[in-house]
């Protein structure tokens, strides 16, 4: 294992009806005026926003609201929130929703205390030094943003998605009631499960040796997600399956399963350009990109993919031809994606193969040499090749 620092300030309040405790929990954190940021009308129609507001009222905490968080959260909504925070003198942000609302709230929290353009942080021009405190009432198991240090925002004018990973991004409070995810469309449930798996796999596929403890944590989490997703798409009201997915989304992306490892995240960077250009669901994009990424990297990392096949998917090890085992694991993963209703090709996303060069060129490079990824550093030609594998 490599050296690590693991900082996790989030308090988790998990179970049935816990959204009714949000007022008392926010009050403990010293909030006096809260901005409630949420997405579409479902949070209002279901009565969730009313329950949150009633809980804040009972705790004597003033609040204002801002709806309109969208998938692939936009910078325009962040600017709107920053202006509202400053005008209303808000001192705590409460995101009610999934990753889109949470990521937007994270951007608002740092942008409201910054004299310049918050996009400076996402474009790499500046590093945030302070943030307003924030909490989450989670309604979707997917992004893991409820306790992660990351946030992803799309610049609407350019359709460019960029992420920011800083410890200031971590919420102080996560209210997590699995029942709140039961009304999600089956497709969104499947997208969420795919995102959870991808977050774990970005950590699992590492070049660091002798990290068996977190290998086993990753493998256990992945097998639990596979089983729970199969149940949840068939029976959306199954509480235990929903609970498994909700907690898995959290540990998948707050580095509980990633400490001591070098993480990759090339597939996420490639997918960000797909969802930015075509406005597809992030999980659906990952369902297309990740298997293609695995197939491309299999020849150089055969034994790692063979381990994935055996321990996660129950494939039999072919010691004479480990590449066959590795491929069987990738095919098993693809079969599971199909089973829960995910796409596997660019065509299914509505993507035009003529855009592949542009998608590859725009992909954010996280390495000093202009490549992306730690498991295998990818240049523009590599990214194009992966996208062509997905164009099948």
From TrEMBL:
Keywords: Oxidoreductase
Record bears the keyword Oxidoreductase: yes
Listed Gene3D superfamilies: 3.40.50.1970, Dehydroquinate synthase-like - alpha domain (1.20.1090.10)
A molecular function GO annotation: metal ion binding
Residue ranges constituting the Fe-containing alcohol dehydrogenase-like C-terminal domain according to the UniProt record: 189-388
Pfam family, one: ADH_Fe_C
Keyword Oxidoreductase on entry: yes
GO CC, any one term: cytosol
Domain Alcohol dehydrogenase iron-type/glycerol dehydrogenase GldA, residue spans: 9-178
InterPro entries: ADH_Fe/GldA, ADH_Fe_C, BDH-like
Name of the protein in its database record: Iron-containing alcohol dehydrogenase
Organism in which the protein naturally occurs: Candidatus Pullichristensenella excrementigallinarum
């Amino acid at each position: 294992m490599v050296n690590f620092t693991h900082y996790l300030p989030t308090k988790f309040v998990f179970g049935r009806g816990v959204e009714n405790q949000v007022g008392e929990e926010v009050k403990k954190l010293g909030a006096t005026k809260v901005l409630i940021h949420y997405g579409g009308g479902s949070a209002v129609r279901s009565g969730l926003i009313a329950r949150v507001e009633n809980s804040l009222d009972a705790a004597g905490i003033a609040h204002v609201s801002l709806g309109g968080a969208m998938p692939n959260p936009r910078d325009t909504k962040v600017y709107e929130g920053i202006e509202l925070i400053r005008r209303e003198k808000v001192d705590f942000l409460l995101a009610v929703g999934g990753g889109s609302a949470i990521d937007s709230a994270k951007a608002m929290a740092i942008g409201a205390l910054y004299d310049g353009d918050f996009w400076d942080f996402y474009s790499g021009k500046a590093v945030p030094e302070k943030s307003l405190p924030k909490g989450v009432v989670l309604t979707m198991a997917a992004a893991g943003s409820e306790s992660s240090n990351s946030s992803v925002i799309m610049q609407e004018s350019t359709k460019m998605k960029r992420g920011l990973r800083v410890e200031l991004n971590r919420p102080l409070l996560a209210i997590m009631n699995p029942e709140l995810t039961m009304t999600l469309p089956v497709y969104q449930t499947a997208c969420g499960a795919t995102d959870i798996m991808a977050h774990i796999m970005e950590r699992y596929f590492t070049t660091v040796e002798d990290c068996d403890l977190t290998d086993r944590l990753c493998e256990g989490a992945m097998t639990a997600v596979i089983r729970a997703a199969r149940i949840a798409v068939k029976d959306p009201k199954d509480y235990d399956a929903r609970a498994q997915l909700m907690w898995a989304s959290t540990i998948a992306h707050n580095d509980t399963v990633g400490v001591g490892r070098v993480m990759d995240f090339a597939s996420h960077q490639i997918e960000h350009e797909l969802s930015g250009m075509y406005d597809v669901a992030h999980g659906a994009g990952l369902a297309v990109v990740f298997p293609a990424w695995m197939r491309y990297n299999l020849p150089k990392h055969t034994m790692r993919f063979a381990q994935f096949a055996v321990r996660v998917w129950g494939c039999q090890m072919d010691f004479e031809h480990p590449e066959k085992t590795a491929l069987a694991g990738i095919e098993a993963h693809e079969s599971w994606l199909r089973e829960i209703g995910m796409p596997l090709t660019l065509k299914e996303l509505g993507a035009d193969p003529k855009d592949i060069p542009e998608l590859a060129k725009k992909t954010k490079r996280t390495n000093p040499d202009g490549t992306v990824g730690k498991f295998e550093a990818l240049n523009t030609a590599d990214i194009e090749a992966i996208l062509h594998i997905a164009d099948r």
